[in-house]
Structure formats: C-alpha cells, structure tokens
Amino acid sequence: MDFIKNPRAIEEKSMDLIDPFVSDIDLTSEEITVYSRMIHASGDVDYGHLIATSKGAVAAGIDALAKGCNIYTDVNMVKAGINKNALSVLGGEVFCRVSDPEIAKIAKEKNIARSMAAMNSFGADLNGSIIGVGNAPTALYEAIRMVEEDGIKPALIIGIPVGFVGAADSKEQLVRKAPCPFITVRGTKGGSSIVASVINALMFNLVQRDHMLYVQGRK
C-alpha cells in the first residue's frame, strides 16, 4: 500500500482500474485519455457509456490548444480547475465573466440569466476557442444559438452542465444539432470538475504528442 503516498503511483493505479470500463468502446488513444480522466474526476465508471463526442472532437481540441487558443467558460469553478500554468505555456488564457458587475446589469436589463449574458458578451472572441460549460444549461443553449445564428465558430464546445432542470435537454440539443465539434455527457451528470478534467486531458495529450514528435525527429 506504499503507492498511496505517491501521487503519480495513485494516478497510474487509478488509470489501470478505469481501463476495463473504456476498453469495450472504440476509441483512439487520445480519446481514451479524455474518457479516463473524466471517469477519474467523477469517480463514476458509468461515465464511459454516457460520454458523447462528435467525430474528431478530441483531435480538434488538441489542435486548438496547440495554436494557443483561449478558453471561455460559464463559471469560475471550471476556471479554477484548469491547469493554467500549462495553458499559459501554450499561449492561452481562461475567461469567465459571470461575476462581472456589467454582466449582472445586462442580465437584469434583458431579463436573462447571467450565464447567458456572459456567454453572449464574448462574441467573436469565441471563434477558434474552446467553450467549457459545466454548470449552466442557459450558457450552453446560448453557445449553440451563437454558432447557429451568429456564425460563431468555436474549435470545440465542452458542454457538460449538471443538474435536473435543463441540463440533460441542453446536452441533447448539442448532440442532436452538433453545430461544431463537441464533448458532452448525456443525462443529468456532469459539472465543472468534469469540464476541467477534459481540458486538462486535452493538454496532457498535446504534451504527449509533441514529445513523440520530438523523439521521432519531426519537431
């Protein structure tokens, strides 16, 4: 049991225990990393068969991060869970405006949720970005609307709001309309820590990919 004193050993053991719960799903090695990190963050092995992604979504997220994309999120809890040092090295930042006084004013004037007003306020900055929604279905609905109606083109939407009112429906709309590459979890499960785990897994994949290219003399 000495491994419980070693964080890296704990993580490796956890991944070994998680592996059987994703081994029956047709996934690339990069997708396995994302699925496994989501299961690890949630402590719920059922996630493996609840996760839904568009084809190539994980690769799209990795490529966007490699280009130094920014991340826009609905709540500060997502922002807190992202490895911002790693993101900074890649040239990106995380933005969340839900607590801004200006956003509260706009939301009150328009009689809409602050999360919706905050997402809308990012406007064209969302082009080429990663959108992470871990709490508010209204933010996910607005992101989908902006893609469909305003022509916004994010590189990836990670839409995993949690809860019993609107969460499952907003995620089903994301899957059904697939307005751009997406990663989600069907049903009521999800949350900020799961969104952060996806982003951190994408960055981990990028580091691993760059290391392999370096070893192979291709970078």
From TrEMBL:
Residue intervals of the Cobalamin biosynthesis precorrin-8X methylmutase CobH/CbiC domain: 10-203
Pathway: Cofactor biosynthesis; adenosylcobalamin biosynthesis
Source species, domain of life: Bacteria
GO molecular function: precorrin-8X methylmutase activity
Enzyme Commission numbers on file: 5.4.99.61
Class of this enzyme: isomerase
Protein name, UniProt field: Precorrin-8X methylmutase
Source organism: Dialister invisus DSM 15470
